[in-house]
Each structure stands twice: as structure tokens, then as C-alpha cells.
Amino acid sequence: MTDTPDLEQNPTVAKIRAWQPVAVANVSMFRGELTIVIYREHLRPLGEFLATDPNLAFTYLSDVTGVDRFPIEPRFELNYHLLSLSRREPLRLRVRVPGSDPVIDSVVPVWPTANWHEREIFDLFGVRFEGHPDLRRMFLPEDWEGYPLRKDYPVEGPR
Amino acid sequence: MTTVQTATGPAQTMVLNMGPQHPSTHGVLRVLLELDGETVVKADVDIGYLHTGIEKSAEALNYSQTITLTDRMDYLAPLSNNLVYCLAVEKLLGLEVPKRAQYIRVLLTELTRIGSHLVWLGTHAIDLGAMSVFLYCFREREEILKIFELVSGQRMMTSYFRIGGLALEPPVGWTDHVEKILQSFPSRIDEYEELLTKNRIWLGRTQGVGILTADDAIALGISGPSLRGSGVEYDVRKYFPYSSYDEFDFKVPVRTEGDCYARYLCRVEEMRESLKIVRQALKKLPPDGPIKADAPGIVPPQREKMKTEMEALIYHFKIFTEGFAPPPGEVFQRIESPRGELGCFIASDGSPKPYRMKVRAPSFVNLQALQKMVEGRLVADVIACIGTLDIVLGEIDR
Fold first, then answer.
1. Residue B97 DSSP one-character state
2. How far apart are the first and last CA of chain B?
3. What is the pLDDT of residues A125-159, one digit of tens each?
């Protein structure tokens, strides 16, 4: 992770900073990919801003990926891979969620495609999404115990 | 039976279970259809019957070993899966692949696109009652699979693209087989079009069915031909060129109607465009040159060198015992697979195994549109809508 000084000049970063200076925790660039780490309480309002602002127009949510950094706290990392189709620009938003309270606002009202992505993360990581219209397990049976993609989950399954 | 409010007033509905063992669900898709007579009120999609835990398995394997898992996700386009994973790891390593390998990758993935679209066309047509198209499509697909077998030794689970290049040098004369396809194929596509494009039954079953507006498609994250059938031009090959796609001249077919027929026309046109790319790749392809990047410690050394050079032997030993360790960081690589935007996210912690590997499967996201497409339509249209989305369950469940 290299933090180059000219990142603050990046128009997307500047716009987000101007919108809410305290929302951004960190900005980094790795292999040409911009990552903006934000605090979790700002996720949904920032999402609305990014999707509706005509100069940003991040209307397309490609993917939401969960990463478990166990035993580091906050252990869960959610990566939102956004795309502005009109400006041909990708962006990664990252939010950290603590293991003691794995809850975050759902972004389904902003990007309806997040519905299944969030269900998948709920299913495999056990992160709950506040305001999700239909939070059920995506792949595993309803009576499955535990969350398989957590790092402290045994590969052989629950014992 | 339960009573629900519909547009025409209260109605008695029943729930019909469709799948997971049903030929028109293209695998093990289960749909719970809530019906008012023959009209669909609600379609609840239930997946996970093919969940293999590939993402979890990848965390226990080293970077090179994971390639064999990627074949098994989208089993109709294994080379596209190989490519997205290899490109993601190469991006993580900052590795440049020789031009010759890049062109061969483009050539083979475009053949994969044609092969995959042929399966889609054949099965979509057989679902809607046109038996003969299916037989023709599979006859032609066999020719493409023969080329895969020629270069990699496998028809389907190819694992031919490796980190830093290709697994092995393609055999002498393999391009003749590609030439043969290039010559025979355009007239074959005309044949399919003759059977379907102006066929009244085909038009009746696809036109105006499963309409998806451009706004809905973007909001639902739809990609690939399913998105372009709704008038959105997004194609990763044009937007974020990878593997030298910017050097190729091709068009991205777009239709604005947003129905099953528009998606059909897009895919058929895409096959013609893919042929154009294959022809250009064949022309650009240097007759010889390296097919692997010069990256000792990452790309296995040549067999001959190992017999004479100590370093080569050591590298070989290290690659196959502990693997190689990319720098810590995260990358997300997207490519245009036959089904749409295929993404691969890799988080590295500096060890020889991926800390987290995640695949953004286009079928998974596209399937979310089913509910929207079939609401208020007849049960028979559900079959058309599943077919037109071109899903592969192996990729959805991973």
C-alpha cells in the first residue's frame, strides 16, 4: 500500500472530502486502483452522493467483497467496487466492520444490485445489513451453523 | 392457496416449484413461482445447489494451484475464467506478458465466446421448441473444443493460461484448424439466422418478452449481452482494455428494445464480431517468440535449462514446493466473459497463498433480473427469460 501525495488532487477524492471531510479514513493507490477507506456510518449517505452527483455518477455497482482480517480488529472489510459508466472510471470503497458488532447499513436503496451481494456476505461472513429487504442465506441451507468464509471457521466444517 | 392483491384485484394464488431438476433451468436452478392462474405474481430464486466453496479452497492453495479451480466455475467458458484469474495475479505481481501470449489468449477467449454462445443459442432454442438449431450448434461447438484439445490437451477443463503466459507452446499447424473455422463459420451463423431470425414462432416467443429497461439493467448490475440488449454500451473490452484488446478493431452490438429478441440479436452479432477478432489475432500472431514472461521464481523454467543451470533447478524446486509470494495488496481485475463482466478480486498478505480470492460472477448478478422480467408474464415466458439470461450455475454458486 503506497500513499502517494498527489492522491489528494484526484477529483473524486477531492469531491468526497468536500462533501464530508470526516467520512474518509484513508486514501491509497495500488497497481493503479484507487481505494477510499471510509467510516461505516457514512456508507449509505456517501453512496447516495456518489450515485446521484452528476459529476461522479457512480451508478453501477460491480461487486461487494468481504474480507476477514481475523484476528485484527475491526476484522471485517467490505469492498464496494463501483463504476461510473459515463466517465469510465472505477472506484473501490472500503468499510471496516468490527467483529463484536458486525452490522452495517445496507446499500440496496442506492444500488438494488447489492441485494444478492449482501445476502452472500451475510451467508458466508455473518455480517448483518441494516435495512436489507430480504436478508436470508444465499447459498447454504437455512439451518447451517457458522459462517464458512470466516478465517476461524474450520475447513472440515462445524464440529 | 393464498389471497393476494394484484393489479386486477384480489386473486387466489398457488406456489409452483420449478427445478432444481428441470432441463430448462440450465443446471440446478430452483424457482418458486407464485401464480395467479397462469400469470406469475412473484418468482423467488433459490440457488446454492452447486455450491462448491471454491473461494474457501483457494485460500488453502498457492497461486498457481488455484488456476485449476477456476475452470470449474463457468464450465462453458473455462478459458475466460483462467484469463481473469491470471490477469489478476499478474496485476498483483506487476508482470507483463509477451505479446505473442497475449494474442493467443485473445484468440482462444474469443473462440470460447463463440462456443459459449453456441451452447446458449442451442439450449435457448430447444427450450422454446426449435430442436434442430441445438444439433447444429453442438456440431460447430465440437470444432472449437477440438482446437482447445489441440492446444491444451483438454476439451473443457483447459487450465491453459498460466501466470505469466501460457502452459505450453501450441502444436505446429494449429492455426490451420482455426483458419478452417474462420472459413466455414460465417455461413453457419447465416444458417442459424435463417432458422430463427424471421421465424414467426421464434418472434412470438421472444419479442416483447422479458423486457428490461436500461435504468433497471444498470441498477441491477446486469452486464454483457443482457445489458447491451437494453441499450447500454458497456463492454469491458472497450472500456478497460486488457490483454491488448485495444489493438483490435471490432464493434460492440447494441440493441435498445431490451427484450429476449434484442438479446438474441446481440449475441448472434457478437459471434460475428468475435470471428473478426480471431481473424485479426491470427494475422498479428508472430510465428515464434516467447509465450511466457521472463520472470524467474514465478514462471517455471524450461525443462532443458534445468538440466544445465543450477539456478533454474532451484527456481523450479521453489515454485513447486512453496510457490511465490506477491507483495501485499488488493487488486480487482475485470474482463468481458461471454456472460458479461467477470471480475476477480485478490487480497494478498505477502504469503504464497491468496488471503482472499473472490469472483464476481456475471451469471450471479444477471440472475437477479429474473424476478423483474417475469412479473406479470405467463409461466411459459419464465423459460424464455431463464434462457435469455444465459446463466451457468457453476459460476453462480461457485
1. P
2. 35
3. 999 999 899 888 889 888 888 898 888 888 777 76
Q: What is the DSSP letter of B233?
A: -
Q: What is the ipTM of this complex?
A: 0.90
Instruction: State whether A60 and B356 contact (CB < 8 Å).
Output: no
Q: Is the Cβ–Cβ distance between A92 and A80 less than 8 Å?
A: yes
Q: Cβ separation of B92 and A31 shorter than 8 Å?
A: yes
Contact yes or no for A113 and B356 at CB 8 A? no
Grid cell digits, residue B42:
412473484
- The beta-carbon neighbor of B345 closest among A79, A88, A116 is A79
Helix (H) / strand (E) element for A33: namely strand A33-38
Q: How far apart are the first and last CA of chain A?
A: 38
Work out whether strand B39-46 and strand A89-97 pair parallel, antiparallel, or are unpaired: unpaired
Residue B242 in grid coordinates: 486488457
Angle at B188 between CA B185 and CA B191, to 5 degrees: 160
Chain B residue numbers with beta carbons less than 8 Å from the beta carbon of A58 are none
CA angle B34, B35, B39 (to 5 degrees): 130
Residues 6+ apart with CB under 8 A from A131: A105, A106, A108, A109
With beta carbons under 8 A apart, name residues in chain A contacting B50. none
* Distance in Å, alpha carbon of A89 to nearest chain B alpha carbon: 9
Whole-number CA gyration radius for chain B:
22
What is the pTM for the complete model shown? 0.91
